[in-house]
């Protein structure tokens, strides 16, 4: 199994999860032509995509969905999110139900509810080849139900959007800062670190921090915050787990 983060952040999000010659995409938030190029660079043919799973329908997660019609790829999204998804051929539209496993070839994908200012945002727990990948992107908090859904993961992709001090000092309008900090906004480095300290068990898990703000975060700061939280559990990066910031 391979996880390849093709894009992450406010400029667009797209993650490929591959098993053998079968790949699913999580979100398609960059132009379709860029997704095609990134896939080919990763050695993945676009016509090998078995499904596109949408966490929510904000533009930075759905911009590249014309790819679905071009290659006849089923698109999976929560019923509420289809209100904001347009242009996907009807026969390719599939509805995700939280907590219900969805089977796509050898993949088992179980959505779980998250907290973001969309109609029905989701995270995803993906099982394939005896491994588990959990993907938790835009969310204002991580609750116990989300943690339960992600327990036992071998790979965790987690949002670490902002540093609160950098956000407070930013030139963002108060309304934007309040939205980001709300329970339906985005995770801070500290929130991501707290969640990961409850998920990482020191079994060599691979952890990817993504969706970092370009203005209100630094990769080194996000990394340090998570490493310090896991160090308090006795875990060392590179020994007990493997952390990347993308």
Automatic annotation (TrEMBL):
* SUPFAM superfamilies attached to this UniProt entry: Metallo-hydrolase/oxidoreductase (SSF56281)
Q: Which GO terms describe its molecular function?
A: hydrolase activity
Q: Name one Pfam family in it.
A: Lactamase_B_2
Protein name, entry field:
MBL fold metallo-hydrolase
Source taxon at top rank: Bacteria
Indicate the segments forming the Metallo-beta-lactamase domain, all copies.
Answer: 11-184
Q: Which PANTHER family match?
A: EXODEOXYRIBONUCLEASE WALJ (PTHR47619:SF1), METALLO-HYDROLASE YYCJ-RELATED (PTHR47619)
Q: Which UniProt keywords apply?
A: Hydrolase
Keyword Hydrolase recorded = yes
Q: Is this entry keyworded Nucleus?
A: no
Q: Where are the transmembrane segments?
A: none
Give the taxonomic lineage as stored in the record: Bacteria, Bacillati, Bacillota, Bacilli, Bacillales
């Amino acid at each position: 199994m391979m996880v390849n983060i093709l894009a992450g952040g406010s400029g667009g999000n797209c993650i490929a999860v591959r098993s053998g010659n079968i790949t699913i995409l999580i979100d398609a938030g960059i132009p379709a032509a860029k997704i095609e190029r990134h896939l080919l660079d990763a050695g993945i043919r676009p016509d090998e995509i078995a499904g596109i799973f949408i966490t929510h329908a904000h533009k930075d997660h759905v911009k590249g969905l014309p790819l679905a019609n071009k290659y006849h790829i089923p698109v999976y999204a929560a019923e509420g999110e289809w209100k904001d998804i347009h242009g996907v051929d009807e026969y390719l539209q599939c509805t995700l139900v939280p907590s219900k496993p969805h089977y796509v070839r050898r993949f088992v994908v179980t959505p779980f509810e998250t907290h973001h200012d969309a109609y029905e945002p989701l995270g995803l727990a993906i099982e394939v080849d005896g491994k588990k990948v959990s993907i938790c992107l835009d969310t204002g908090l991580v609750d116990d139900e989300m943690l339960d859904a992600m327990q036992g993961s071998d790979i965790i992709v987690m949002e670490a959007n902002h540093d609160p001090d950098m956000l407070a000092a930013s030139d963002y309008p108060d309304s934007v800062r309040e939205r980001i900090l709300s329970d339906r906004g985005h995770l801070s480095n500290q929130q991501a670190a707290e969640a990961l300290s409850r998920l990482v068990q020191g079994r060599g898990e691979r952890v990817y921090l993504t969706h970092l703000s370009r203005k209100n975060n630094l990769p080194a700061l996000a990394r340090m915050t998570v490493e310090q939280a896991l160090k308090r559990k006795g875990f060392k990066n590179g020994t007990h787990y493997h952390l990347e910031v993308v």
